[in-house]
Specification:
It contains three helices and 35 strands. With 509 residues, the protein is mainly β. It has three domains: 72 residues; 269 residues, Methylamine Dehydrogenase, Chain H; 87 residues, no CATH class. The relative contact order is 0.15.
């Protein structure tokens, strides 16, 4: 009887020693130890295009992402391909209705439209633009530095804003129900006018918004600000972070994602916000979720993350070289963008019946320059622009990764003056005419020119996406040490149990 009791005690001690092995959880160690069982964020191989600020998908097989220096990449269901716009504008917002009807807005006030084959300029304004939302195939809204624009009846028209501040993002639930967020404020559209719905707590800058329905929505901003709309009011929700949040995307009331500074990814599960594993320390500027198991995020340094099941993508053997601009013979002169952020297109040939967009005078302006629309006459032969090095002239913000606005202020007071013709010409951005116009932008106010930022090199991008260098090797070494220590602990426990059993047996003898 005593021997049977001792055997049971030895078994209990053995099981207890094995239970003491460190429990790390599923998927937290390297892929060589744990297999991924659920969806997770993984770095997706993408062309090096510099920082990306905007993202939208019309389905699992097609989407776009835009960024600095006129970068535009398109997803075809299997890979992202770059297609540089012939412009130095940063693409700040994208929204697609379907695969052949998408819109984009840029930092310098261009409104672009995608017709299924190319991006073309549909309208221009002198205000910086940063937000965009379509209500239908021929109806939409755009917002930016103290301006609200509405697209209806084939024209973009300015709509009065109740608050002169920087407006960052917009989301429309229906043609009669929409929301705008910006510098310390949330605006609501009731079908007839925009009204102030909420002054943000502590005057925080509200950066992104996503509405699931008329009674469910989320907004995020600086200092970890997260606001929830329940159909009657906006309420601040604890985020657990003080980092800046730049965008939010929801697929259901129990599945909401927010991204922000230093690669931060948060997920709301219906009860609280939790940090998700991110494979980058680069700022993430935009996120779009297709379902609870599929989505995308883009950010600084051209990083592209996919939320997927199946583990990380295998590394490529050689990095994709950065495309360079092939020299063109002197008979076909190339377009050399100005190093300054100011530009006034000067047509090489006289124009007739060309509509113009009048530059709006800002406070403190010393002159009132005007900008004319380039000629839309089609040249006899055009030369496609290869995927070349993007032009300089756009300085990203050191904190948010978004371009620095020369007029970005919560007290900005623009003077109306936006003009738009119903028959505005369309100019393709991805081709260069045989006699391109010389471009020089004239500043509308007395301001300091933005510093020139050289195009990021491939080495710089790799260093940004992998800031920890040998982090993978260190993690693998740590895993091996943990396993060795755990195994050693189990052996010591077993040996101790054996010695203790022998000691008890000798004592009772």
């Amino acid at each position: 009887m005593m021997r049977r009791n001792r055997s049971w005690w030895l078994l209990v001690i053995l099981v207890s020693s094995l239970w003491l092995v460190p429990q790390t959880g599923k998927g937290r160690l390297s892929g060589a130890v744990w297999a991924q069982e659920g969806p997770a964020w993984q770095i997706f191989p993408a062309p090096p295009v510099g920082s990306l600020y905007s993202l939208d998908l019309v389905g699992p097989q097609q989407g776009w992402a835009g960024g600095a220096f006129g970068a535009m990449i398109e997803y075809n269901g299997s890979q992202w391909r770059s297609n540089w716009l012939q412009s130095d504008d940063a693409v700040m917002a994208l929204d697609g209705w379907d695969g052949s009807n998408a819109w984009a807005v840029t930092y310098y006030g261009k409104i672009l439209r995608y017709d299924g084959s190319s991006w073309q300029v549909a309208a221009e304004t002198t205000y910086s633009l940063s937000g965009l939302c379509l209500v239908g195939p021929n109806e939409g809204w755009a917002v930016g530095g103290g301006i609200i624009l509405r697209f209806t009846g084939g024209n973009w028209q300015e709509v009065p804003t109740p608050r002169q501040t920087w407006l960052s993002d917009i989301d429309m639930v229906s043609p009669t129900d929409g929301w705008i967020v910006g510098g310390g404020v949330i605006l609501h559209w009731d079908g007839s006018s925009w009204q102030v719905a909420l002054d943000a707590p502590h005057h925080e800058w509200v950066r992104g918004i996503d509405m699931l329905s008329a009674t469910e929505g989320w907004a995020v901003g600086t200092n970890g600000l997260i606001l929830h709309y329940d159909g009657s009011s906006w309420t601040q929700v604890e985020s657990g972070t003080a980092l800046e949040l730049y965008d939010v995307s929801a697929v259901s009331p129990e599945a909401v994602w927010a991204v922000g500074q230093n690669g931060l990814i948060l997920r709301y599960n219906g009860r609280r916000w939790k940090v998700e594993d991110s494979k980058t320390f680069n700022d993430l500027n935009a996120v779009r979720m297709l379902s609870e198991t599929s989505g995308w995020a883009v950010g600084k340094g051209g990083v592209v993350l996919e939320y997927r099941t199946g583990g990380p993508y295998p590394p490529t053997s050689t990095p994709t070289p950065r495309p360079t601009l092939t020299p063109i013979p002197s008979s076909t002169p190339t377009r050399t963008p100005s190093a300054t952020p100011t530009r006034t297109p000067t047509p090489s040939t006289p124009q007739t019946a060309t509509p113009t967009a009048t530059l709006m005078t800002q406070a403190g302006a010393t002159s009132t320059p005007t900008r004319q629309q380039p000629s839309v006459s089609t040249p006899a032969a055009t030369t496609p622009v290869p995927g070349g090095t993007p032009p300089a002239g756009m300085q990203p913000s050191p904190t948010s990764g978004a371009p620095v606005s020369p007029t970005e202020s919560t007290t900005e007071t623009p003077v109306p003056g936006f003009e738009m013709s119903a028959t505005a010409p369309v100019t393709t951005l991805i081709t260069v005419p045989s006699s391109p116009p010389t471009e020089t932008r004239v500043a509308a106010v007395a301001e300091t020119a933005l510093p020139t930022l050289p195009a990021p090199t491939l080495a710089a991008r790799v260093s940004e996406e992998q800031p920890a260098g040998g982090r993978g090797a260190v993690r693998n070494l740590a895993v091996i040490l943990i396993l060795l220590l755990a195994g050693g602990g189990a052996l010591v426990a077993m040996a101790g149990a054996l010695v203790f059993g022998l000691w008890l047996r000798r004592r009772r003898m």
